[in-house]
Design a protein that fits this description.
It comes from Streptomyces xiangluensis. Helix content is about 50%, strand content about 10%. It is of the alpha/beta class. Helix 7 packs parallel to helix 9.
């Protein structure tokens, strides 16, 4: 599935490797900004038929410190077998590259994040041989960024924050702050951010809100993912139309789109306006009202040019 929170939570570090410095600072550990970055193969398979892959692996170099190997793992649930795998990754990377490894685990669920952050010891209780202590970023320690000025200061950190806070009650304010900044951001930076957040939110209700915000505030944005989501919505509309007539289903879908735009923009919709929209069965009229709903100052203004 393309829209995978798992992919977004670790791949963002490939596009923005300096993000690790910002995340680690939030977590109370200082790592200098890298001066150069090399994306390394993620395949940690041994010669025997046992395949192990880390999600993202980066070599970070700075001016003042030794190069660092950063393994980023996206973790969606508790897995009692993972700590042993992570310990293997660390020892394998140290053996292969002769560089100190660091593990960052990114979670979207607080319980999973707190589980991943617990130190795990390996060896007999009277003399533990190894202790695994990954850095963990999740909703329990990532900042809730609702101020566009703060988003502008560090767009990559704000993007990861939006992904990790997908279930936060303030997610609408978080996403609106991001879209406010993206309106004046070059496409080369803006488009990947839109995709990361869309993938990161996965099937959470916030993903639907994000699509609506992008449609209203960034109306010229198009991508394969958003086209796919739009096609799914149209397919659902057609399925409903088969039950009550195709034309009626399309009209209902367009009417809901208009009301969704008003909802996202925070406009009050009088009952008379709602009734007129939902009772209309002319697709072209509804299409016209939908376009006007994006810029209208009030709900009834979509009818003024008639």
């Amino acid at each position: 599935m393309v829209s995978s929170p798992h992919e977004a939570m670790h791949r963002i570090f490939q596009d923005h490797p300096g993000l690790f410095s910002g995340v680690s600072e939030v977590l109370g550990v200082r790592f200098a900004l890298p001066t150069s970055v090399t994306i390394l193969p993620t395949d940690l398979t041994e010669t025997r038929p046992l395949e192990r892959r880390v999600d993202t692996l980066l070599r970070l170099e700075t001016e003042d410190e030794e190069p660092l190997l950063l393994a980023v793992e996206a973790q969606s649930k508790k897995d009692p077998h993972k700590p042993a795998s992570w310990a293997y990754y660390a020892s394998y990377l140290l053996t292969k590259y002769r560089l100190q490894p660091m593990l960052l685990v990114v979670c979207q669920d607080r319980a999973t994040a707190e589980w991943a952050a617990r130190p795990v010891t390996f060896g007999p209780p009277q003399w533990p041989l190894l202790t695994l202590r990954p850095l963990v970023a999740g909703p329990h320690n990532m900042p809730v960024i609702t101020d566009p000025d703060e988003v502008h200061k560090d767009l990559a950190l704000a993007t990861l924050s939006a992904i990790t806070h997908g279930k936060n009650p303030d997610i609408e304010a978080i996403l609106k702050a991001v879209t406010a900044v993206l309106q004046d951001t070059p496409d080369t930076v803006k488009n990947p951010v839109i995709e990361f957040i869309f993938q990161g939110l996965g099937k959470l209700p916030a993903a639907t809100l994000w699509r609506k915000l992008v449609a209203v505030d960034l109306s010229f944005y198009k991508s394969a993912i958003f086209e796919e989501a739009r096609d799914e919505g149209r397919a659902q509309g057609r399925a409903q139309g088969l039950a009550q007539g195709q034309a009626q289903g399309q009209a209902q879908s367009r009417a809901e789109d208009i009301l969704d735009v008003f909802d996202v923009r925070g406009l009050d919709v009088p009952e008379a306006v709602r009734e007129r929209i939902t009772s209309c069965d002319d697709p072209e009229t509804l299409r016209h009202w939908h376009r006007r709903a994006v810029i209208a100052r009030s709900a009834d203004e979509i009818f003024t040019d008639e």
